[in-house]
Amino acid sequence: MSLRKKEGDEQAMASLQMDQDTARRLFAAGGVLLLLDLPKQSEFGVDCNAWTIGPKFKGLKMIPPGLHLIYVSAASKEGHLAPRVAFFHNFREKEVLVKKWDSKNEELIAEDDLEIVNRFRLNLLNLDPFLAPYPFQNHRRWYSLSYDLNEQLVGRLQPANKLLSSQAEFISKEFDELGESSMKVDRQHPTRIRYSDKQGLPILLYKEGTEVRFTSIPTPRDDVCSIAERTERGADSSYALQSVLASFQNPNEILGELQFAFICFLLVHMYEGFEQWKLLIHLLCNCLKDLEKNERLFLDFIMVLHYQLKFVPKELFVDIVSKNNFLSVELANFFDIVNECERCPVLKEKARKFHCFLIKNYRWDFKVDDDYKPVIVDSEQHHLS
Question: For residues 285 and 334, what is the distance between their CA atoms, to the nearest angstrom?
């Protein structure tokens, strides 16, 4: 087995070692991932760690029971890396999970034949030299990013095919409706059917089964209400938050989705994850009425965001967020709202500490210009003058 460090902090390779008690416990109860036929020089990652694999690599052993993210970027013969493909899996004690890389279709295939899986299980002793130990010393970092996630919530959010990809799979609208006949040009079909939007661009749809099923965030324009109500809902996300929370079994599942979106963006390199993360941040940072009612949720929200920001290199948020002044503006609104809530002293104190942490570590300016404050412009207003 050979692994070469690809991502992670300076402790990444040291984390391949662990104390003897932990090693014995994980050896006895830990899960095993067999990842077969993945080309050498491919990227392989689990949770917060990624490596370039060698020719002898066949998988991972001593995986702590619980939810984990596995991801790969297969290398071509020329050494070029394919888009990252990932999946979540909730490992049970002593579970053996077998995945094979299909080089023809460039996809991971699960081995579902229990007899074949059992053969691998019986042969684990011979496979052991080709299996890397789970980097347990970094497990806390992964837990800090995923503790509100569970198997049920992942099942709700992940694509129907259970695979996440850094490169979205699209098909044209005409192919979706007509199949391969949309490509046919003959006497009966002298021209190809093409659908386009107002800008003349082709209309693209997600390939069936590949779209992440993020929760839809309602907007004021979605509601049938007066202009005054629409403007109020544009400035206060409380109504939208209650609508979203009603779709979950418990309130903290919205924080689980916040973690899911962040993980998709940061580790799977999915832009859609970043967009959903921003929508959820905006939703949670602009609730004027529901602070006291949902104080526990907002206390937990601060912790989730705190761990996310600690994990990400400061330079990343400078490049991605601060140029558009997104996160500092949203948090400035949040801190102002919390500061005005007289009945939430615990939340106020926690928000104050988080505010100090951000100023100290990121030197962010939390002054909000009027240009960034929420404004709703309704088309009906143009007909009122």
Answer: 5
Rounded to two decimals, what is the model's pTM? Answer: 0.82
Closest to 97 in 3D by CA, of 4, 50, 30, 26 = 30
Q: In what order do the strands lie in the sheet with 31-36?
A: 107-110, 96-102, 31-36, 59-63, 131-133
- Residue 112: helix, strand or coil by DSSP? coil
Q: Is the pLDDT of residue 384 over 90?
A: no
Judge whether 368 and 335 are in contact, CB under 8 Å.
no
4 Cβ contact partners less than 8 Å away, ≥ 6 residues apart: 51, 52, 53, 54
- The CA–CA distances, whole Å, from 271 to 48, 103, 262 equal 18, 26, 10
pLDDT of the residue at 314: 67
Residues comprising the chain, all counted: 385
Task: Report the sign of the C-alpha dihedral through residues 183, 108, 270, 65, in that order.
Answer: positive
214's CB contacts (< 8 A; 6+ apart) are 157, 257, 261, 272, 276
pLDDT of residue 361: 83
Structure tokens at 168: 């979205």
Amino acid at 376: I
Give the list of residues 6+ apart from residue 356 with CB closer than 8 angstroms, or none: none
Which tops the pLDDT comparison, 104 or 281?
281
Q: CATH top-level class for 220-372?
A: mainly alpha
Per-residue pLDDT at 204 exceeds 60:
no
Pick among 1.10.3720.10, 1.10.630.10, 3.10.310.30, 2.60.34.20: CATH of 3-146: 2.60.34.20
CA distance 174 to 181: 9
Going by pLDDT thresholds of 50, 70 and 90, the confidence category of residue 312 is: confident
